[in-house]
Design goal:
- This protein has a domain of 160 residues: Alpha Horseshoe (Leucine-rich Repeat Variant).
- By secondary structure, the chain is an all-alpha fold.
Length: 232
């Protein structure tokens, strides 16, 4: 079920400012290059990252912190717009205010993951929105157990990466189990995510990662192994 866009006066203000300010920094030549680099996943306005963030600060200047319906409305409405920079605004907004959202926000995050899906938004949503939601409510791990088996590779990638910033709080058994569950997946983005999640956890427990990779080397793709052991 697609989450509904709730009524939000704050979102109305945000979107009015956002759609007025972002186009002022548009650069058609840079937009074409960005779209090509991102394999044509979406059109771009052509904003430099620093300029986009400065405009975002202007958008949010003087506005109150959102509650969960505000976050839902801003995120979903941004992702309804075609240009990728609006999606980036939503991702940044959620990263900043995910602590204002309850576990009930997970379906909204899931909808964003499968909307105009590519690594540039999915990875940030995985580590900075889904991850904090699950950390705040461990009951959501059962949802991650479902997501890892999802036929949509971006949903499965999100499950693999949601613990990316957990460090010592990482559930290593779950991480390793997820890696093995999708070890036979042929897509680059899944194999890369397996290696990335292991490489990141290796910063916390290198011996555990090395032992896991040694024991599962015959099941893991060479790409996953290289990524996992890159810094060991």
């Amino acid at each position: 079920m697609t989450p509904a866009v709730p009524q939000s006066d704050l979102a109305d203000t945000v979107m009015e400012r956002l759609t007025a300010l972002y186009p002022t920094g548009a650069d058609p030549e840079r937009a074409a290059g960005a779209a090509a680099y991102m394999k044509g996943i979406a059109p771009f306005l052509g904003l430099y990252t620093a300029d986009r963030r400065a405009l975002s600060r202007s958008v949010l200047d003087g506005l109150p912190k959102p509650d969960e319906p505000d976050c839902t409305a801003v995120a979903l409405r941004c992702f309804e717009l075609p240009e990728r920079e609006y999606h980036y605004f939503a991702v940044d907004y959620l990263r900043r205010y995910v602590g204002r959202c309850s576990s009930g926000f997970l379906p909204v995050a899931g909808r964003l993951v499968v909307t105009v899906s590519w690594w540039d938004t999915v990875d940030a949503l995985a580590s900075h929105t889904v991850g904090p939601l699950v950390a705040a409510d461990p009951k959501l791990t059962s949802e991650m157990d479902r997501w890892i088996d999802d036929e949509n590779l971006w949903v499965a990638r999100t499950a693999l990466l949601h613990q990316l910033r957990y460090k010592e709080a990482t559930d290593a058994d779950r991480l390793f189990r997820y890696c093995l569950r999708r070890a036979d997946h042929t897509d680059f983005f899944i194999r890369k995510a397996i290696g990335w999640s292991l490489r990141e956890y290796a910063k916390t427990d290198p011996d555990a990662v090395r032992a896991f990779v040694d024991g599962a080397r015959d099941r893991l793709a060479p790409l996953s192994v290289r990524e996992a052991l890159k810094n060991l």
